Input
Amino acid sequence: MESGRNLHNWLHYQLQHFIENKAKMVGIAVEYVNPEHTSQTCKCGHVDKRNSHLNNFHCINVAIKAIRTSVPP
Output
């Protein structure tokens, strides 16, 4: 099990650096955020567990809707 966990971490680390390097090449800053409540947080800043509905995102504060297969707005 341990080797699988190390492989998973290595792939995440590699992807993270790939994104950082590509962003740096085109002048985009990479910002790391705390993943807590990201599925419940709207771009308006409103956080509510009622925003998250299985495959959909619907902000009850500003009525923004999105399909869950994408990153929530």
Summary: Helices lie at 2-25.
